[in-house]
Amino acid sequence: MKKYIALSLVAGSLLLGGCQSAYYGAMEKVGYHKRDIMVDRVQDAKESQQEAQEQFSSALEEMQALLNHDGGDLQSAYNKAKDEYESAQGAADDVTKRINKVEDVAEALFDEWQTEIGEISKASLRRNSESKLKQTRRSYSKLLSSMRRAEDKMPPILTAMKDNMLYLKHNLNAQAIGAIKGEFSSLQTDISSLIREMNRSIDESTKFIESLESGK
């Protein structure tokens, strides 16, 4: 518990300062190395993708409920769909932020690793460390590509949702709802594709974390 509090205080003060290199250095002094930070940030990115999956699915459900609306308060149904769209936008922003944090610590970790390999005098140990670094870089590259592919699928979906929400905002009636029903199947397909891509990224995250923690 004391270590957790210390880490939280260090992290909070340094993040406010905005200096990542100072942050990593200070965290290392309290026994929290870049590899540990990397594991945590990949886990955070993984969880943000899981949350985004749920949020995009919820947004789709509320939009479907709006399109299938039959009597009752149409404005209330619209407001629910709009709220879910805005939450999906927030979830997408969080995914991007988390991936960027993974990328930042990865660069710092690999730079440090490469530098320290040069300080190893024994050739066999140096070669072994170089081999592990290359393997970790390959695994990380695969992970990052998977994360970015999933991330790239979100903006077009959000744009389509926003278009629909804005259109309905100015034309909230049965005729307007009927006009956008034709786009709904495309939106369903796109979100299903997004969820599949995120599942692949989540699987890659799990494998990468396991490889870092096991040292393989």
From TrEMBL:
Residue runs in coiled coils: 35-98
Signal peptide interval: 1-22
Name the UniProt record assigns to this protein: DUF2959 domain-containing protein
Pfam families linked: DUF2959 (PF11172)
Record InterPro entries: DUF2959 (IPR021342), S2_sf_CoV (IPR043473)
Keyword field: Coiled coil, Signal
Organism of provenance: Shewanella gelidii
